[in-house]
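Researcher: For the record, we're logging two predictions in this thread. I'll number them. Prediction 1 follows.
Model: Prediction 1, sequence and structure:
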Amino acid sequence: MIFDTHAHYDDKAFEEDRDAVLASLRGAGVGRVIDVGASVRSLKRIPELAAQYDFLYGALGLHPDEVGQLTDEVREQITRGLKNPKMVAVGEIGLDYHWDVEPHEVQIRCFKEQIRIALQAEKPIIVHSRSAAEDTMSVIEELYGAGSPAKKVAKQEALKKLQPDSYVEVPGKEWVWKKEIPEGPGHHVKRKGIIHAYAYSAEHARIYTGLGFFLGIGGVLTYQNSRKLKKVVKEIPLEYLVLETDCPYLAPEPHRGERNSSAYLPEVVKAIAAIKEVPEAEVEAVTWENACRLFGLSF
């Protein structure tokens, strides 16, 4: 079975046929879906949808474009909503410097505030990061870092291992300098979260997975120009990957440009299987277990 860890079925794009689409997912091999919050409206709508469908769960949070609405009342609404057992994460939260709807300092502050809500509720987070690689990494290291001293390590060693902290290659030298990371308040958390729609380097992927995060892989992997993401999927073990759609957005080939849905995830499974040279059934099984473990659900 397939586990879609990031969907937006509360979106207006599904207004006319939402029930029919959701009712069809089991027949398409989709066993569970996380409907992920983005706006204040979704904080109410997602629990309503989750109550209607046994396979649908929710995440509550404000997208970085919406954090201007993160008032005390909204914080309380998120905190209170997380007491619902079907609300299994805080998200999507993070930084978006592509659209720059809110000032960077506001985005960073609200990102940290929502992470602290997640830590208090003992829930994983779903991270949105676009054109904000360094600041996103800085926040994650600050709040989830396990603490480490700075030291020199062999470049070859650094590249073949999942590193629990950052490192920087020094041109012309065969070593990298790992910067010291303080122990964050969430360093002990076993179920940390997902870097949604992962779009950064394999080097950053090693750091995130070393810190205990999963990488969300969706339709973009099937695009012809996704060489960087294909490299990440090839290098990072399957045990650190989860499937996602971000529907109604980012439909995979051959459906690119259409409204996306969880029923298209077999195309992503096929792409991962081809890159990693494993059976599609193995991709489904491992990513299913990864997601169930992260969200505290039975296998």
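Researcher: Logged. Prediction 2.
Model: Prediction 2, sequence and structure:
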Amino acid sequence: MKNTIFTGSAIAIITPMNADGSINYDVLGEMIDSQIENGTDAIVICGTTGEASTMTDDEHLECIRFAVEHTAKRVPVIAGTGSNDTAYAVKLSKEAEEVGADALLVVTPYYNKATQRGLIAHFTAIADAVNIPLVLYNIPGRTGMNMEIATVKELAKHKNICAVKEASGNISYAAKLIAECGDMIDVYSGNDDMIVPLMSLGAKGVISVLSHVIPKETHDMVQYCLDNNFAEATKLQIKYLDLINNLFIEVNPIPVKEAVNMMGVNAGSCRLPLCDMTDEHKAVLRASLEKHGLIK
């Protein structure tokens, strides 16, 4: 097995915005500090939840640089550098390495998709271009394509491809992935509602949205699993299931940004085409936060 990037709970952190739509680095720094203080084991910057797809090149790289410098080696920083253009993903990945990212999160190509042979060529080109670990990101609900287990197995032979963020939501697929590739590559849950199921099969942790609102409890859930105390982990998974579901009541990261705002953190709005939540959904989300004592 290659060196593990992190074990435990990572946050796929939002990108706070000012009223004019620019990035609010002061709040981002405060959020990073709060996460680390509450046990979060890694920071994932510029992922799906971070709205990387609406960032300019300069913003994307500056966010990564800021996260690296502000985190200051307290926990690993994993930079989202995926693209549906292999050449651009290579360029961005090299730049992320240069500014100090500890690892990269690289999503499967979206829109134009690829064959499985194309996926192998795509990820291999990125991994060949850098000297830090890659986390493959499988999220067919976003990209319209799924990595076959044989593809992951082939990619796991590369020295720099060390992990998979598995967000298909398919427990059967995840079980087969861990069974066939788990001795070659680490697996992280990409779904908060499947933390305990995937970790019971051997996953090393979660890349979480839930951690924005309950970082300590998310970390504790994962730690219980790592300690083989699945009874206590299951209690937390079930206790917060309504909150997890309501953080995805609309397209991520719309609800989690709203939740953070409700909790008093000035996260701002999402960038278009993501718009504000409906009043109906806001009421549902607020009720969940109130139920768990996160707001009054």
